[in-house]
Design brief:
Radius of gyration: 18 Å
Shape: elongated
Number of helices: 7
Largest sheet: 4 strands, mixed
Helix content: 40-55%
Distance between the termini: 22 Å
Order of helices and strands: HHHHEHHEEEH
CATH topology of the largest domain: Glutaredoxin
CATH superfamily of the largest domain: Glutaredoxin
Strand order of the largest sheet: 2-1-3-4
CATH architecture of the largest domain: 3-Layer(aba) Sandwich
CATH class of the largest domain: Alpha Beta
Structural class: alpha+beta
Mean pLDDT: 92
């Protein structure tokens, strides 16, 4: 992410330290992660200590301090999804992408996470990609769904 874009995001919020989380969210949204250089620039421009920014960025799950893929895959492992075969769906996604939960592929195409619930239990097992839920997944369906996110 270039410095000019970071400046634009900060300026949009009038450089107010109270907008720190919103600024970080916007950088995360565009860049898929928070590089150290971006955090340092935000620290200087908002006059917030870097240690405070790093604490906030590491506390909230919405932020990532390591590169993430362009497409974020979440597999629900909650009770309803689990009993309907979420583990098999997860195994298939791992086989197709070559990554495990918490990892990102080398092409920065996919990041994989497991979650406890996506809030659509009747559709289980559920796989969410970039916030879009795909319900009643079967292992055989996962390749077709992932193809749409090339």
């Amino acid at each position: 992410m270039d410095n000019d874009r970071i400046d634009q995001i900060i300026d949009k919020h009038q450089g107010a330290a109270s907008s720190l989380i919103q600024v970080l969210l916007e950088i995360q949204s565009e860049n898929h992660w928070l590089p150290k250089e971006a955090l340092e620039k935000v620290s200087r421009k908002l006059q917030v200590p870097l240690t405070r920014i790093q604490h906030i960025a590491s506390f909230y799950k919405a932020f990532s301090l390591v590169p993430k893929g362009r497409h974020e895959i979440h597999i629900c492992m909650g009770t309803a999804c689990h009993v309907r075969g979420a583990t098999r769906v997860l195994d298939t996604v791992q086989d197709l992408t070559g990554i495990k939960p918490g990892e990102t592929d080398l092409d920065l195409k996919f990041s994989l996470e497991t979650v406890n619930c996506l809030g659509c239990c009747a559709l289980g097992p559920v796989m969410e990609i970039d916030g879009k839920p795909h319900g009643k997944m079967a292992p055989g369906d996962t390749a077709d769904v992932l193809k749409n996110y090339e």
